[in-house]
């Protein structure tokens, strides 16, 4: 605890020093560009010292980890017992209008198709609840971008894409479903470099 206080005091001292420089800059004329640069540098240093809160979720990227690559070769998908022709060969645009898919959101940009029903005696997960799921994410060209046989996250904390949070709240324990998500429920217009392109 004591170590945590020291940097805080140091940062406060530096902030006060910046404020003093700021006061002297206001008094001097605009020809003192050197002082203005120092003031700007001081503000920039202060910005860089601020740290955002962060969370960690374990994803396995098949493009970087050797053990995952070996696992991918032995099993192309995580759910081999289910026929995957529909989502493997049908354009996503057609699936967004298919009648045998359930809408999770009113805008019809997040849909699911249940392949195996879950336990009807168990309630749906809710916000703030920790869930564990097996998932595989693919792009429309069927490039696998995420694969995890044990993804753990808390609903509502933003650790995973919105599509997963919304979908898992509509599922029951043991349910297996296909999830179809528009980019706004995934990584948005910016995508996620290098594997998910921007729109």
From TrEMBL:
Transmembrane segments: none annotated. InterPro entries: FKBP4/5/8-like, PPIase_dom_sf, PPIase_FKBP_dom. One of its GO terms (molecular function) is protein folding chaperone. GO terms for biological process: negative regulation of apoptotic process. This is peptidylprolyl isomerase. PROSITE patterns: FKBP_PPIASE (PS50059). Pfam families: FKBP_C. The gene is Nfu_g_1_008448. Keywords: Isomerase, Repeat, Rotamase, TPR repeat. Residues 1-26, 32-44 have a biased composition (Basic and acidic residues). Its EC number is 5.2.1.8. Residues 1-45 are annotated as: Disordered. It catalyses: [protein]-peptidylproline (omega=180) = [protein]-peptidylproline (omega=0).
């Amino acid at each position: 605890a004591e170590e945590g206080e020291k940097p805080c005091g140091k940062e406060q001292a530096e902030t006060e020093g910046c404020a003093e420089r700021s006061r002297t800059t206001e008094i001097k004329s605009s020809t003192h560009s050197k002082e203005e640069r120092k003031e700007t540098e001081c503000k920039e240093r202060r910005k860089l010292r601020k740290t955002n809160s962060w969370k960690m979720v374990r994803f396995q990227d098949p493009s970087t980890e050797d053990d995952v690559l070996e696992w991918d070769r032995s099993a192309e998908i995580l759910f081999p017992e289910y026929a995957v022709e529909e989502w493997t060969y049908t354009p996503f645009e057609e699936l967004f209008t298919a009648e045998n898919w359930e809408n999770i959101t009113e805008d019809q940009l997040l849909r699911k198709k249940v392949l195996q029903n879950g336990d009807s005696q168990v309630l749906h997960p809710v916000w703030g609840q920790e869930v564990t799921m097996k998932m595989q994410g693919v792009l429309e060209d069927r490039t696998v971008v995420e694969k995890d046989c044990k993804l753990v996250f808390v609903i509502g904390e933003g650790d995973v894409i919105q599509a997963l949070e919304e979908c898992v709240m509509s599922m029951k324990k043991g349910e297996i479903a296909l999830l179809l998500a528009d980019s706004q429920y995934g990584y948005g217009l910016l995508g996620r470099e290098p594997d998910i392109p921007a729109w």
